[in-house]
Structure formats: structure tokens, C-alpha cells
Amino acid sequence: MREMGMLLRSLNLHTVCEGAKCPNMGECFSNRTATFMILGEVCTRNCKFCAIPTGKPSLVDPEEPKHLAEAALKLNLKHIVITSVTRDDLKDGGANQFAKCIEEVRKVLPKSSIEVLIPDFKGNEDALDIVIKAKPEIINHNVETVPSLYSVARPMADYRQSLNVLKYVKDQNKNIYTKSGIMLGLGEAKDEVFTLFDELVEVNCDMLTIGQYLPPSYNHASLREYVRPEIFEEYKQVALKKGFRFVASGPYVRSSYNALEGIRELKTNS
Question: How many CB atoms lie within 10 A of CB 42?
């Protein structure tokens, strides 16, 4: 874990693992896997579930794509996950930086798969096109929670816009796997979760992750429930029956956890 951190610091890179205080960080770092976080460490939105700070973001680093590719090569990663803070201050929302990172990784690891976890880009289809044309294997955009809780968890986001992001990706390129994720424990009702599953399946979302919400601090959205493991398993089975091609569901599941396992399963069953 320390070795991984030293490598990332030497290349001026960040991971969402650290920024979001992920509970799987030690395990993933020990296995030499990580989700790279591009476009700085400061977000322009104020989501109430996230530990990443909000404020004035830094300038875009033109060397970041090459540094990310260098780190991926040194770690010999088979599946590279790239995410970012939300950059509403940028005209393209950071889409071009995503595309450049994909391009640089392809140069050095042409046989590895790439997953991007993108913000909503304010629904900007031109920005989405930039990422789609770079052809990552997976484009992930998390809806995070049921629509009734957006005012609690995602006050600067829109549930329908997030669904439209996933729909647009699939409409433009059916060969790209789409993925989304939600947290449980914010106060959602079961019927709301099942409706959310239906609406994700309607936009042809292939993959789903379901995890337990854990408040980063007392200043974040309140935890309403620790969901029992058997409920996570129930949700997994329901989601699979509704049409998802891969579902990871459990208290410590996060968007990028066991991401390689997911794409391998999809390819095997294709």
C-alpha cells in the first residue's frame, strides 16, 4: 500500500480510493489495483455523501494523461479505472482529459481494458461524444440513490439527467458496456429501489453495483440504516432477474471494486 502511494505521489496522481476514504483501499492497494482520479482533488459540486472537498479546482494538468499511463504500465494493470471530480467550471466538463488518458493508456497497455466513471457533464452530449469516441470498454455513471433522496444526497444533480447519460452512451455505441451504482442506507424504500432497477434496465444499463452508504463525517448526509447482508443478496437477485448482466451487491461494494471481475464475466457470457 505504501509503495502504491509513493508511486502515485511521484507522478502527481490521485486516487478516488484515498479521496473518497474507500473501505476497500487497503485490499485494493495490496493487490496493486487502484482507480485513478483525474482533474484534481477539488470538486465543483457539494454532494452530501462524498468526502472529496468542494471549492475552486486547480488548472488541468496537461501531463496527467502520460503520467497516468506510466503508472498503469509500471503496475502492469489489466483493467484501468479512471474517474474524476466534477468540473462544472470547464466547458467540456473534463471530457477531453478523459479521452487523452484513454489514448495514452492504450499506447502502453493495448491489451488492457479501460473503464471510466464519469460525471454527468451537465447532460452535454458533445462532451459525452468525446468520451464515447475514445471507446473505453465500460462507461460508468452512478445514479447514487433513488430520486426522492437527491435533495439529501445530490442537491446539484438530476436523476433523469443521469439516466439520460447512460441512455445516450448506449444509443451511440452499443458495444460499450454501461454501468451504474447506488448506495443503500440513506432512507430509501424497497419499492423505490426496484423502480430504479427498472429505469436503469430501460436505458440498457449492463452492470450495477450496490453498496452500503457510510458517512465520511458528521457533516455529511445522515445514515438511516445499516442494511443486512441478506437484503443486499435479495437486491442482487432481483436486479439480475430484471435484466442486468452483472451485479455486485454487498456492504463494502463500491463502483470500482472488483471491476476486472465484472468485465471478465460479461465477456465470458457474451
Answer: 15
- Maximum CA pair distance of the chain? 47
pLDDT digits (tens, 9 = 90+) for 47-58: 888 878 889 998
The model carries a pTM of: 0.91
Nearest by Cα to 213 from 179, 248, 254: 254
Residue with cell 447506488: 182
Does residue 123 sit in helix, strand or coil? helix
User: In sequence order, which ranges of the chain are alpha helices (DSSP H)?
Assistant: 2-10, 16-19, 25-30, 64-74, 95-108, 125-133, 150-153, 159-172, 190-202, 229-242, 259-269
Residue 246, all three cell numbers: 452483472
Residue whose entry in the numeric block shows the C-alpha cell 442537491: 155
Task: Measure the N-to-C terminal CA separation of the chain; round to a whole number of Å.
Answer: 35
- Cell numbers at 235, concatenated: 437486491
- 130 touches 173 (CB < 8 A): no
CA distance 146 to 152: 10
- Give Cα separations from 200 to 68, 111, 190 (angstroms): 31, 30, 15
